[in-house]
Amino acid sequence: MESEQLYHRGYCRNSYNSIASASSDEELLDGAGAVMDFHTTEDDNLLDGDAASPGSNYVMSNGGGAPSSTTHLLDFLEEPIPGVGTYDDFHTIDWVREKCKDRERHRKINSKKKESAWEFTKSLYDAWSGWLVVTLTGLASGALAGLIDIAADWLNDLKEGVCLSAMWFNHEQCCWTSNETTFAERDKCPQWKSWAELILGQAEGPGSYIMNYFMYIYWALSFAFLAVCLVKVFAPYACGSGIPEIKTILSGFIIRGYLGKWTLLIKTITLVLAVASGLSLGKEGPLVHVACCCGNIFSYLFPKYSKNEAKKREVLSAASAAGVSVAFGAPIGGVLFSLEEVSYYFPLKTLWRSFFAALVAAFVLRSINPFGNSRLVLFYVEYHTPWYLFELIPFILLGVFGGLWGAFFIRANIAWCRRRKSTRFGKYPVLEVIFVAAITAVVAFPNPYTRQNTSELIKELFTDCGPLESSQLCQYRSQMNGSKAFTDNPNRPAGPGVYAAMWQLCLALIFKIIMTIFTFGLKVMPHRCADAPFAPHVFSPTPTPLPCFCRPQVPSGLFIPSMAIGAIAGRIVGIAVEQLAYYHHDWFLFREWCEVGADCITPGLYAMVGAAACLGGVTRMTVSLVVIVFELTGGLEYIVPLMAAVMTSKWVGDAFGREGIYEAHIRLNGYPFLDAKEEFTHVTLAREVMRPRRSDPPLAVLTQDDLTVEELQSTINETSYNGFPVIVSKESQRLVGFALRRDINIAIENARRKQEGIMLNSRVYFTQHAPTLPADSPRPLKLRSILDMSPFTVTDHTPMEIVVDIFRKMGLRQCLVTHNGNVLGIITKKNILEHLEELKQHKEPLIDDI
Predict the structure, then answer these.
(1) Distances, alpha carbon 8 to alpha carbons 722, 735, 740, 818, in Å
(2) Residue limits of the CBS domain (predicted)?
(3) Total Cβ atoms within 10 A of residue 716
(4) 14-59 residue pLDDT tens
(5) Side-chain half-sphere of 211: how many Cα atoms within 13 Å?
(6) Most buried residue, 65, 90, 522, 734, by most Cβ within 10 Å?
(7) Alpha helices by DSSP H, 159-205
């Protein structure tokens, strides 16, 4: 029997028939390629669970749909059964099966390309389809990002006033052609009117301030209300940043509609509204979701990707790189972000295509030039002053602050998300968004640093002071006459404007910290519930239940708010160090580098380092973050300070917990994601984790040749498992293969539809040859074609460290546990994740006791 099993393993690998995908164009699956699955609806159900889920099979070739001329049976070599090999919603793909399917498709194309010119053309189209789909994705991502940037700037300025000469101009564009602007008040021109000037006819005074205050709050609430209503009615999946879900999808999980056309449309519109409302959120994270929607939609134009979920995830990895490329103007950083942060399966060809997609997206955005500065981002800056060795001390301190902020934010945000389920606002998402938007607008308006757009704030904090800067942060005193707003020497005593700006920045820092915690929580509920709302697919006849963990709210990104917090803290530290260097230039730290009147400290550089440190503390990104910030500034000289701050923030953050914010939200939502960065150091065996346990009901199995259709259907109906091991007989528990619940149901229905004589007492067999039956027996049903004859197996004494490593590297959803060839139980991804969680919770009290 063991030699027969080995034969079947090789046989299955070489004889995998392509499986037709049943995914509809509307239900645009989100996919991306990695492995790892665990969800309440899926893997657990193989032996403990709820839904159907394909196994980690090598083959699973599909049975034929038409009866054979000799046996009239569903035969292994006939046409595939429609629907076999596809996946249900909230299930994980079978990476091994998808790869086998792609290899079979590739061999078929290569074998036919020499037959005719048409077949050769089809082979060329297949070879170039990958480059075509990433090109289209890059073009669409760049165009949408430019549109979002332009619209968000216009709506943001609409809260303060309107351009009379052209209503579609924002404040800056309105004053470009004006000849009546002054150097000190370059943002004021007759063409731009505040709401107080339009309504009351006066620009100054308490009445005009109150009117502007009121209109600011009115527009903020209007934008927030419209955004949350659009999300709730049309596309509930447009809420949040999308990066935790993208990571889960790229690991192989399926959330139908999450990357669909309606999600793309509504997320694009509501992202503009949410940013313009003034909420403490950014558009950079959601741009990754937008780009992945584009990649998913374009992949349906190419059968190579539309019918293979693993290949589709390669496109989504490239799309995520394009999203970061247009979000930060950092094509290389986008590729590294996709590799380091979101992708689980990243072959070399995906690296090349990700690079190309990021290049195309950046080129399109640069051609649109949404900011009017010939740059890809609003806060592009260049510094002309080198950094000095002693500055590593404040840079590292900023890294410590970033790590502490990241650890605090993750814990506070997750605690708030869990708390929301017991609050009244958590049950009324529209009311909650309006309430948070109202608090934000009321508190933000009096402070100019919280009133302005967050990207503009970062730009002002990054910018170095010079003779052309009119910011309050640059109002230094001149040693020549004691009062001068601008000087060519950056190292000079701070004037009243700088001190006032410092106080305002401190208040802005507190405000941003508090509001970011609550605003980023406007998306998740920590549990799934029975009364989940229904999100009907527009072209689907049946509604799909929407888990409670994603109640309709608004798109919300975390990159820009985190960078703003770090930039504020960095600018404050930079000004403090600058003043120390000025008043105490004889200290040993400053004596060698900072002479009196010398250009020594650049506060804007500290803001940039602080922004990178805080973002690194929240996300735990390292290499990609340094490259992104480097591309923002264009200064190769400042990589060492950035590296020092980012690594320090990661070390400090990891001391309080290794999870970044996205991993924490994945865990909070219960997504089936097995993190490759997490180490497994406990000594346990497979038999301790497998199901069933001693107190559980016995393992549900199928025999290979003595079941009837009625008995098979009874077994399926009485259990909720996603799959069943197939054994030789009840007496011999030797493993034959593994059959999936979904595939069995589809095969039976297909046989009844296309074959005559299939009855409830028809014999079902999974063997190559039909068993000997009496002459008056009804026609048997052969299901060998849907049997995975080489399921992954481990022995009951296999260490769980090895099992976890196999699940990570092979992308398994389940593996069978055997003893001397006899089936004992099964381990699913959910079992592994539950086991890891139990070990964590058992370990944490031990740490607290120390």
Answers:
(1) 22, 11, 18, 17
(2) 690-756, 787-844
(3) 18
(4) 333 333 333 333 333 333 333 333 333 343 443 333 333 333 333 3
(5) 17
(6) 522
(7) 171-174, 195-199
